[in-house]
Design a protein that fits this description.
disordered C terminus; 8 strands; alpha/beta; TIM Barrel; eight-stranded parallel beta barrel; globular; 304 residues
């Protein structure tokens, strides 16, 4: 079976996008996980989620921007997204990756760009989630987040349970009153910085989840793992944490049945809805999270 490490390597081979794009079946499969290449596609997808009682977060696909002009284009796109949310009345916030906004170019530039988005979201009464990327970006991401959080209340952060450092980072973010999205982590990290064993990651996730739910701050528990969901529900019930005091979060197209089921059970559910032309690395990372899905893709390609 193709390994997670191999899939993460392939996610960085951007030239393969053109090759795979020649297969109509492949493009059809990607639409399960990606709303489309333009903003209208994402709005249509979010309307359908809202009709099911699910809120959303826009995720314009893109990362590792290498020019100020590209970063400026990303800022303008997110300002357009916030305007469309306001105009259409859909229930969604936005999610940004800082390498989209110039983190690899200049940290000051990235802070200024991200601040423009957060400021506009504040004007609209909306919320911005700052995503976390690979561990080499963690310190820079947190520095920018701290600066934003000192000025704005409508900005939150993502922390990854597979990193050893996250327990310490979580306490600092809680001391700032920050809303946190807790996920396991989707990048290929060395054993020096991340738990190598899934059982260890799961154990850390549960410990961090429990700390979040007891904090009295509204957080996002982001997982598709039924064991982690069950642990969250059981802990919340035992500690008297109301379902409205936190939300579950999942990715578009993954465990749709579970997303709908959680809403029916009275829990809050938010789905991250990615869109844009830069879909290839995102799609490959989704396969890396569950390599067995590769065979599903290959079977559909062979049916063409």
């Amino acid at each position: 079976m193709i390994t997670r490490t191999a899939l993460l390597y392939l996610s960085k081979q951007h030239s393969l996008k053109d090759f795979f794009s020649r297969f109509a079946a492949f493009k059809k499969i990607t639409r399960r996980f990606i709303a489309g290449e333009n903003l209208d596609d994402a709005i249509t997808a979010i309307r359908a989620l809202n009709a099911l009682g699910i809120t959303a977060s826009f995720d314009h696909l893109g990362e590792s921007i290498s020019s100020e002009a590209e970063a400026e284009a990303e800022v303008r796109e997110y300002l357009r997204v916030l305007s469309r949310i306001e105009d259409t009345g859909i229930d969604s916030n936005v999610s940004v990756k800082l390498t989209q906004l110039g983190l690899d170019i200049d940290e000051g530039l990235c802070l200024r760009n991200t601040r423009r988005i957060v400021q506009e979201a504040a004007r609209c009464g909306n919320f911005v989630r700052v995503d976390m990327e690979d561990s080499a970006k963690t310190d820079g991401t947190l520095r920018i987040f701290r600066a934003l959080r000192s000025e704005f209340a409508n900005v939150g952060i993502v922390l990854q349970a597979y990193l050893y450092r996250t327990a310490r980072d979580l306490e600092e973010m809680l001391s700032l009153g920050s809303r946190i999205r807790l996920c396991k982590g989707a990048y290929d990290e060395p054993a020096e910085v991340a738990f190598p064993d899934k059982k260890e990651v799961d154990a850390n996730y549960v410990k961090l989840m429990q700390r979040l739910l007891k904090s009295g701050i509204y957080h996002g528990i982001a997982t598709h793992d039924e064991a982690m969901i069950a642990a969250t529900k059981e802990f919340a019930a035992r500690e008297g944490v109301a379902p409205a005091a936190f939300e579950f979060q999942m990715l578009y197209g993954i465990r749709r049945d579970l997303q709908v089921g959680l809403v029916k059970d009275g829990y809050r559910m938010r789905t991250y809805v990615p869109y844009g032309a830069y879909w290839y690395p995102y799609f490959m990372r989704r396969l890396a999270e569950r390599p067995a899905n590769v065979w599903f893709v290959l079977r559909n390609l062979l049916k063409r």
